């Protein structure tokens, strides 16, 4: 193994951060019918992020964003807005993924193909390079010839990747690579040497082919927080029970079982055509000193906040009403991408 491979690693989300990237919804995106509902959610997300670190916003119309933020109060210095054209708002999946070689971070710019060519992504694919050109970052941006979304992988910062077969091995991403070849690519890019593959678990209404950040999350102290479903009549019951058994069989690098924190299951939410929307409490965002947790005006919101709190003792647990976000089949983690310490100017 090369020396640089030993040093390279993919930081855990709970490690120190400089900021979080957000892309603002606009009338030329799929959010157009829901702007009145969803923009206040983005205002709240940015407000909560800016309490703890810098919020980086990519937006076609910065003046509108400033006006929306100012309506909630003074726009803090920890909010930076860049005029950039976007297709959509899913920063988790087109935002840069940061690796560390020794102490020096590098931003990796993976290809984003709209979750397997389902949606237009030409503008979103340019956002990272546009931010680099506007001097938002203080470190190099390296373009990688691989399709990979940030929501499809979880890292513990110590060489372990948690992911799903349904997404990473899907023929609509990197069909030229076998599982073994993909693991070798990710080892070279991230320094990861352990891969935990989930073969079960899904959310109805999810466009991402089962991104792991909607199902199960790596947490500090060898903990995995994951969605549960106790309703035998729910269509998800058997798949999520099978996923729970998979997680119980996983072992840490030291050969021990993971500590498991089950997250409650919100009541079904449906769109105007009666289709299930992918509400999940696993889609939380970790920031410096806090965890922002999506809520859905649901009876289980409080229990979800409490469960996440057990996985992150000592951090402030902040609920953010994300009910409008699931109208476009994503939630809080999906619309954000953390930028680890040392990445921003």
From TrEMBL:
Single GO MF annotation: agmatine deiminase activity
One Pfam family matching this protein: PAD_porph
Domain of life: Bacteria
GO biological process, alphabetically ordered: putrescine biosynthetic process
UniProt keyword annotations, A-Z: Hydrolase
InterPro entries: Peptidyl-Arg-deiminase_porph
Protein name, entry field: Agmatine deiminase family protein
Annotated PANTHER family: AGMATINE DEIMINASE-RELATED
Record flagged with keyword Hydrolase: yes
Keyword DNA-binding (UniProt): no
């Amino acid at each position: 193994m090369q020396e640089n491979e030993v040093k390279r690693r993919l930081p855990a989300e709970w490690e120190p951060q400089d900021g979080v990237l957000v892309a603002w919804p606009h009338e030329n995106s799929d959010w157009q019918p829901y702007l009145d509902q969803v923009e206040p959610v983005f205002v709240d997300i940015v407000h909560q992020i800016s309490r703890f670190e810098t919020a980086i916003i990519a937006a076609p119309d910065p003046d509108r964003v400033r006006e929306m933020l100012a309506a909630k109060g003074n726009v803090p210095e920890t909010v930076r807005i860049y005029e950039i054209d976007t297709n959509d708002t899913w920063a988790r999946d087109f935002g840069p993924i940061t690796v560390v070689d020794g102490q020096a971070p590098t931003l990796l710019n993976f290809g984003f193909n709209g979750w397997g060519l389902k949606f237009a992504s030409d503008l979103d694919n340019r956002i990272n390079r546009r931010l680099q050109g506007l001097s938002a970052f203080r470190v190099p941006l390296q373009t990688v010839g691989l399709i990979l979304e940030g929501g499809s992988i979880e890292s513990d910062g110590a060489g372990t990747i948690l992911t799903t077969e349904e997404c990473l091995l899907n023929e609509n991403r990197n069909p030229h690579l076998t599982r073994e070849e993909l693991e070798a690519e990710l080892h070279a890019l991230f320094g990861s040497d352990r891969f935990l593959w989930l073969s079960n678990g899904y959310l109805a209404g999810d466009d991402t082919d089962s991104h792991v950040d909607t199902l199960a999350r790596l947490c500090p102290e060898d903990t995995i927080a994951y969605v549960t479903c106790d309703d035998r009549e729910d269509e998800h019951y058997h798949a999520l029970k099978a996923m729970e058994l998979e997680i119980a069989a996983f072992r840490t690098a030291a050969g021990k079982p993971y500590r498991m924190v089950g997250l409650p299951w919100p009541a079904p939410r449906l769109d105007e055509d009666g289709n299930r929307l992918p509400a999940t409490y696993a889609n939380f965002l970790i920031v410096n000193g806090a965890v922002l947790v999506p809520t859905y005006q649901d009876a289980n919101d409080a229990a979800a906040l409490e469960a996440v709190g057990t996985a992150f003792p000592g951090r402030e647990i902040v609920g953010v009403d994300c009910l409008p976000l699931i109208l476009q089949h994503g939630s809080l983690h999906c619309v954000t991408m953390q930028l680890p310490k040392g990445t921003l100017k």
